[in-house]
Amino acid sequence: METAAEYAIGIDIGGTNTKFGIVNHRGDISNVGEISSTNHDDINDFIDELYAMIKPAIKSVGGLDVIKGIGLGAPNGNYYTGTIDYAPNLQWRGIIPIAKMITNKFNKPCTLTNDANAAAIGELMYGAARGMRDFIMITLGTGVGSGIVANGQLIYGHDGFAGELGHTIIRPGGRLHWGTGMKGSLETYASATGIVITAKEILAERVNEDSLLRKLSNEEITSKKICEAAIKGDTIANEVFQVTGHILGEALANFVMFSSPEAIILFGGVIKAGKLLLDPTRESMEKNLLPIFQNKVKLLFSELKESDAAILGASALVWEIKPEAVTSGGN
């Protein structure tokens, strides 16, 4: 039976699009929609459009009285301060007090976290991590994000920014990151962007070897196209995933030896490659683990729809459900 304040609004701000939905306690999402994250130079104009889009959804479930609050996931979102701090893939620069701005606009309390942390909370409550007290969520999309749960607690660190595993250096002096200026970070190899770079490098090195990818222009080569070519048996496309899995597996081995999780859950558009990515990643991870860690950590794909996980996780912030409360009663 539904009660007052039965719903939360979950919002996921991405580098390209912002998605939202109305979520109840059971994790049922309704009134899903999205707007562009790039159409407004002024953050106030963005929030105005977001409010205009969500307002009919609020009305459809019974108005503001049945909305408990708003949960928000965003790149560089700080749970402690409610601010987005210097997000490299958003056009609003500096420190943005977005939780306060949305609270004022919607007249409902807003809680903010990092977008990858929101996905981890969604997986914890409704997906493959239900019942777990120790796991790492790795989001493989345009970039590489992560959320770390240890001893039933989402790890935020002293300043709210813990869990940037995508920016750990896995190849010292390696690829230059397009946004941070750092060299050799995991994101430059294991993200969709990194996969494309790897493909172009191999194509350039082996100019005399045929490949379906050579039929595409540089601009047309995407991680999806590489995956399609690999499924068709293309040698170079398959090697791209071997290289990517090798590097990702090395990084995951480091993460395992850091926090000894029960599972590592992979999430995001890149996992559509399935076994092409999973098999070399698992092999490389196990090869680079100390014996005491080997064959203990499950490597899983997310059980949630990509479009739902961050919305679900963001909405969970509203119920003030902490990870330890969920895992102690999970099933």
Automatic annotation (TrEMBL):
<comment type="similarity">
    <text>Belongs to the ROK (NagC/XylR) family.</text>
</comment>
<dbReference type="InterPro" id="IPR000600">
    <property type="entry name" value="ROK"/>
</dbReference>
<dbReference type="InterPro" id="IPR043129">
    <property type="entry name" value="ATPase_NBD"/>
</dbReference>
<protein>
    <submittedName>
        <fullName>ROK family protein</fullName>
    </submittedName>
</protein>
<dbReference type="Pfam" id="PF00480">
    <property type="entry name" value="ROK"/>
</dbReference>
<dbReference type="InterPro" id="IPR049874">
    <property type="entry name" value="ROK_cs"/>
</dbReference>
